[in-house]
Design brief:
178 residues; 8 helices; globular; disordered C terminus
């Protein structure tokens, strides 16, 4: 309701379209910030790793073996979400979770890094989901979204960038004197 009233007020002075162009990125940034703070670094990293594994599994599933020559987008998304959920739940207690230090304990991390990890995780997920869509459905997707998530170069960047950032991220070691 507030957005409608604000849009009416801005329309009177000719700023309705530009207001949405400013408001949407601000709301997205706020949502990513809340998402990152509520989950924390370890959970976001676990979700990121789970997303990579789920993508690999979904791309490698021999669908014809399950009598599905052309699985629907919805089925691929549900299978991917199920794999992400399964890995996310069991990773912290596994040998992989122990090796990566991904127990879900509170770890102090700078808010900037939390925001970056959350942005990369959500961007990767959006890129993957949009890659499942048939090209017919992509005509309904706004051009800016296609440029950022769907183009082959963008999809490659979303796939590689989170790994690079994780490799470059270094948490500060505390120095105990005693």
């Amino acid at each position: 309701m507030f957005l409608f009233v604000a849009n009416l007020g801005l329309a009177k002075i000719g700023l309705a379209n530009s207001a949405w162009q400013i408001l949407i990125p601000i709301l997205l940034a706020l949502a990513i910030f809340v998402y990152s703070v509520s989950l924390g670094r370890n959970r976001i990293l676990a979700l990121l790793l789970s997303t990579y594994v789920a993508l690999a599994v979904v791309k490698a599933i021999p669908w014809p073996m399950f009598r599905l020559d052309n699985p629907s987008v919805g089925l691929k998304i549900v299978v991917m979400l199920a794999i992400i959920f399964f890995i996310f739940i069991f990773m912290p207690n596994s040998a992989l979770g122990d090796t990566l230090g991904l127990g879900y304990k509170k770890v102090r991390t700078a808010l900037m890094w939390l925001f970056v990890f959350a942005l990369l995780q959500l961007g990767l997920f959006a890129s993957i989901i949009l890659s499942f869509l048939p090209t017919d459905n992509l005509t309904k997707v706004p051009d800016m979204v296609k440029q950022v998530f769907v183009r082959p170069e963008a999809a490659f960047i979303w796939l590689v960038l989170p790994m690079l950032v994780i490799m470059l991220y270094r948490k500060k070691k505390s120095k105990f004197r005693g």
